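Case study.
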Amino acid sequence: MIQLKKFLKIRNCFRVFSRFFVAGETNLFNAHNFIKIEVSLRLTDIIEIAYRLVAIRKPCFLLAACLLFCVFPERSGAAEKADDFQFHGFLTQGYFLTSDNKIFGESDSEGSFDFTEAGLNASWALNTDLRLAGQALFRRAGIGHEHDLEMDFALLDYTVSSASDYLLGVRLGRFKNPLGFYNDTRDVLFTRPTILLPQSIYLERTRSLSLSADGGLVYGEYRGELGNLSLELGAGMPRGNNLDTELAYFGSDYPGNTDSKLSYIGRLSYEHGTGKYRAAISSARADVRYDPKLLPPDDLPALKDIFVPVIFSVQYNGDKLSLTSEYAIRRIQENSLDNNYQANLDITGNSYYFQAEYRFREDWRGILRYDVLYNNRQDKSGKKYQALTGKPAFTQFAKDWTFGLRYYINSSFLVAAEYHYIDGTAWLPIQDNPDLDHLERRWHMFSLAASYRF
Amino acid sequence: MPIKVYVLPDDDPTHIAFSKSVLKVFPYQLRSAWDRLVFSGTGEEPIMLKSEQQMRSVVGSTPGAIGYLSRSMIDDSVKEIPEN
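After joint prediction, the assembly is written out as follows.
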């Protein structure tokens, strides 16, 4: 028994505990910090240069990637940093080619390079209980997202209480929304299984709302012999710009404005001691209001939309094989706040995917996934929707078969390729495809991406 | 005293052996857990050193440091934690 506890303690040091075992004494002016600052300037310069190359001429991406690769070939170089300050980042460039329909730019003609993700983050441990962390995110992702630059998270993390078997803390500021297995780090290719996340759960359309929220989150973790149990509960104002929110909720751009109200989020996760089995239930209650500028029929009435997704996640991790599945029920309730107009809606969508990932070798991985999304579980075929609106039925579902391969050149650099065969267009970004009459029901997508991280 | 955790690169044979036989996890699981901490702002990853030589000298000279070495690399500068 004592041996087991000791084993758990040592293992936890390397796994989850590492986050709060940090240097006690902070000296901003020691040699390590000077080295650190130099490195950060050089890296931001290089990412900037790399981006400009990509923006000017598409084939230059490879050159830019090689530049990064040559200057920072191995992530172990990061060892020079001071113990109380960590600095990390990533850069991904993608290419999308589709047979029909558009994703992230003009993907259906010669393919599109309009997909770039870059992030820089820092974490500074003020003492063993207090930590500051922030991440800036740059993203290009098709029409409406030509060059987004945003503060992805910026938080103060305070460990209220901890021992070898539990942890209790609070995060204040802008925190990443804990939803499913991948939402927290959805923009980092190294942490997601495919170039395009399973859209049934991680819809591009609702991305801006699900990214992060401004408020507070409490978390607790218990580590026992049977595994780790953790709970995160947050309250805050979801981010999300007006246009993206209108498109996500109402399907097109209206004259008025959307406004996010206080919303709630939570995730309960279980991890078997070695991480061999993982499971989670996450949910949120997002409150969005619509404030019209004109009177109907030129505008929508004043609306209140309550969006409640519930996501169930399970994962098995073996030596070579990982199996992952997530299932979501997404309910949206829309009510008119204007007594003169009726606009009540209550729709529940559901979605799920099954995914198998196989590590042929340490550096090669293959993936196979079947991913399904229904906007309305009482109208899976979309026929009722078509009868009611005159819009194509296949815009109400999407069934996506994905085959992917990725190669890790080293621990800092990877290249990935994938092929999708998709029946339906329910998750296609609306900005890239404003004209529903030009959509094809069955379409193919091929994608390539290269990514660097440190 | 706060503990400082040091590790070797993901593809280092000693790191792979230590992960599998002592921690009972596959190295890719550690990497993915650390990446989740780092890129979601919820934590920090252990400090990565380049080699066992560097591991021995850093762990040997840093108060509160914990790391791992091949048996042949252990000398008086570091204190061994016996395996169960």
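Observations recorded in class. The beta strands of chain B are 4-7, 47-48, 65-66. The two ends of chain B are 24 Å apart (CA to CA). We will return to this complex in the next lecture.
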